[in-house]
Amino acid sequence: MRRIYLDHNASTPIAPEVSAVMREAMEDAFGNPSSEHWAGSPARELVESARSQVAELLGCAAGEVVFTSGGSEANNLALKGIFYKSKRPHPHFITTRVEHPAIVAPLRFLERLGAHVIWLPVDGTGLVDPDDIRRAITTDTVLISIMHANNEVGTIQPVEDCAAIAREHGIPFHTDAAQSVGKISTRVNDLGVDLLTIAGHKLYAPKGVGALYIRDGVQLEPLIHGAGHEGGRRAGTESALLTAALGKACVLAGDLAPMSDARDLRDRFWQMLKDRFGDGVVLNGHAELRLPNTLNVSFVGRVGAEILAAVPEIAASTGSACHAGRIELSPVLEAMGVTPEVGMGAIRFSLGRSTTQADVDATVSGLAEVLTSTGTGAKA
């Protein structure tokens, strides 16, 4: 069986157009973007061009885009930047129980420093109730952070409604859009957000670069101190190579037509699984409000990691971990109320621009061969 990559939510390959921009940058933009001489000018031009390209995708001003080393740093800058700038003894944050670890871990850290965090529940499809946000707001609330789309099950949160509630109370709103940029629209004014996170390697740029949109007027304490790079908001000499790559990737991300194709292919994939495995396979996440490329399913009574180990040619992710014979569900599936019997068999298939029907056909055949030979109820 040939190798099939169905783990685009984990990381995407670098697009050929992005690689071409990087090669040009390596040859022509070696100078320091902050230098005023001839060697610095090409690098500075690349950085600022990339900033405009990111801003164009998000529908914001170029000066509202701050480059970072990736999505994790952008999330940390948003959360910690608000915490330290607030100067309150016990600043209050609101988030959900299904956030990415790059949100959870910084907030756990801030709890140790005196922050009070409300971890809102979600329903069985992974959706948060905006009314829960309204009820959780206090006079000490300094930030509400709700992810745009879940990385595991693909559920798209009602960010517009949540952000509107934050705006009513004069509270900044942050969304981690690492998974949604390039898959669905992420125009910041349509969403109503004040802070938005981008991760380059989730949208066909290399690892090591990302960005944080910061609405004009929102004040953050820098996470990294040093010289006055990025308007004093993120110290460190900018990489013309990486920022140019992210800029080009954002240009490509503006065309959402490939995601329409991915949605059709994903739906056919799901139908094929249902036809082959019947009640032995169930969908995790929202049936409609879901990223167009994401299909998280559980093979009931089976262990996802064991299934994938039996078909090593298929690159995908599991929703559970096995430790010394004990199955541990991911926090996302646990928060959704997925039972261990179902959750332990979870596998996330995330399609990309290059995924084909042949890839899906081969994947279903490979799964059927493994599951039928080991006693699951696959149909002939």
* Fourth-level CATH superfamily of the largest domain: Type I PLP-dependent aspartate aminotransferase-like (Major domain)
- Major sheet characteristics: 7 strands, mixed
Domain tally = 2
Radius of gyration, CA atoms, in whole angstroms = 22 Å
| CATH domain topology of the largest domain | Aspartate Aminotransferase, domain 2
CATH class annotation of the largest domain: Alpha Beta
The averaged pLDDT comes out at 95
| Unreliable parts | none
What helical percentage do the residues reach?
40-55%
What is the distance, rounded to the nearest whole angstrom, between the alpha carbons of the first and last residues?
20 Å
Instruction: Describe the global form.
Output: globular
Count the beta strands.
15
The class by helix and strand makeup works out as alpha/beta
Sheet-strand content, in percent, reads 15-25%
Return the CATH architecture of the largest domain.
3-Layer(aba) Sandwich
